[in-house]
Amino acid sequence: MKVENSYPALSQFDKAYFLGIGGIGMSALARYFKSLGWQVAGYDKTETTLTLKLQEEGIAVHYEDLNSSIPKEFQDIDKTLVIFTPAVPKKLGELLFFQHGEYCLYKRSEVLGIITQSSKGLGIAGTHGKTTTSSMLAHILNESTIKCTAFLGGISSNFNSNLLTNPTAQYTVIEADEFDRSFLRLSPFASIITSTDPDHLDIYGDASHFVDGFKLYAQLTNSAGILVQKFGLNLPSSAKSISYGINEMAADYCGTNVRVYEGKFLVDVQTPTEIWQSVEIGIPGIHNAENAIACIALCEFIGLTQDEIRHGLQSFLGVKRRFEYHVKSQKLIYIDDYAHHPTEIKALLDSVKLIYPNQKITGVFQPHLFSRTRDFFEGFAHELSQLDEVILLPIYPAREEPIDGVTSNALLEKITTSNKKVLSPTETIELLGKRSDGVFLTIGAGDIDRIVNPLKSAWS
Fold it and tell me: CA 458, CA 460: separation in Å to the nearest integer?
């Protein structure tokens, strides 16, 4: 059940202080409040490309726990809104200072809920694909006469940001994150749900409770709106429900004949009323064709024309670290992808094999979280075994402590590909940097992106 809260009006504040400001969702909010003319600052544990970018934009970021020594301008309790992410340690001195004071202290999801109460929220939920789908939807709307504001979970290549602002737009695109049940604090006018494959079992406990979370989210969609859900999910909702899928002939919106023709990525789409032939999508991938079909369904409901939707899809450039090309030459292809769940890895490899059917494919995978690696051990092993060569990096722990027996070496033993090894990031760069042909993938949600530029430099 949705948690009901009484929230203050944002108009009473003019300062925002963030705990975990470097997170992709948190940084979008920081940029949003900066765009309103607020004073914005925050803490994060580690300096990253994103935090440095925030600093360039005039947002003060620090990396040490100041405890109670908060900058003076943010000690005005009545004017300071404090926003935190559940990923910050509960014993963080700054968090304890704000908790023991009388500050207005809210999670990111709560603040998103407050912001979107004054507009029509378009929530994009799902275990996989929500960042690309929300970015795709935001771009289509922004290219149309309707426009939107958008809070994204990745850096859109079209906007070069995770935030899009159109103050007069009636729609706000929100990436509805299931982590920590955050999406249950939203009140979407319309929603897309891409998938409900179990994840975050350290929070939900088991697959059944995970799906229950999505059932609750589906019920939050406004009855005057629409719920666009992947064919087969069958989530009940008081809103009108529309299904979509690839090669799902019983779906309301069905994509078929996914193909690459003269360098263009195309799909035919059967809508409830007509067939759209050869819809061009700006980025490749079978899963991206499926994401596009969901966007078509929602955009038609909102009132966009076929020409507007086609233009938006064709000109969509994708999201950083989602099927992102870094080298694309005649002999060598290098793609970086955020995939960190077996289903996402399958979608990535299926798409790569469709585009490069006769090429040797080498994948570098960094498992993300000990608990996720344990929970989907067999699935990871099965999907990674489809690669011609597998390199595993040590598990990225994020917020977790090690779990006995859960290591990259243990995962390697289960992978059936004969050409496989566990290497450090430095060893990986040294080995692959000497290669001159083939398809290379870096895969994972941790800090594997740190080897992207060194590999790109070696191959450029």
Answer: 6
- Write out pLDDT tens, residues 342-385: 999 998 999 899 899 999 999 999 999 999 999 999 999 999 99
For the chain, which residues make up each domain, given as ranges? 12-107, 119-314, 324-459
Task: State the first-to-last Cα distance of the chain, in angstroms, to the nearest integer.
Answer: 52
Express each pLDDT in 403-417 by its tens digit: 999 999 999 999 999
Cα–Cα distances in angstroms (integers) from residue 114 to residues 9, 100, 147, 188, 227, in the given order: 8, 23, 20, 12, 21
Question: Domain 12-107 carries which CATH code?
Answer: 3.40.50.720
CA distance linking residue 416 with residue 381, whole number of Å: 8
Whole-angstrom Cα distance, residue 106 to residue 83?
A: 5
Residue 452 has phi, psi (to 5 degrees) of -65, -55
- The string of DSSP letters for 135-171 reads HHHHHHHHHSSS--EEEEEEEETTTTEEEE--TT-SE
Answer yes or no: CATH 3.40.50.720 is held by domain 324-459: no
pTM of the model: 0.82
- Residue 378 corresponds to which tokens in the numbers above? 């067999």
Q: What does the alpha-carbon distance between residue 358 and residue 296 come to, in Å, rounded to a whole number? A: 32
Instruction: Give phi and psi for 279, each to the nearest 5.
Output: -75, 120
Phi, psi of 284 (to 5 degrees): -80, 170
Kindly indicate whether the domain formed by 119-314 is annotated with CATH number 3.30.230.10. no
To the nearest 10°, the Cα dihedral for 164, 169, 175, 176? Answer: 150
Q: At a CB cut-off of 8 Å and minimum separation 6, what does 415 contact? A: 381, 384, 385, 390
In what order do the strands lie in the sheet containing 80-84? 60-62, 39-43, 15-19, 80-84, 104-107
CA dist., res. 176 & res. 123, Å (int): 5
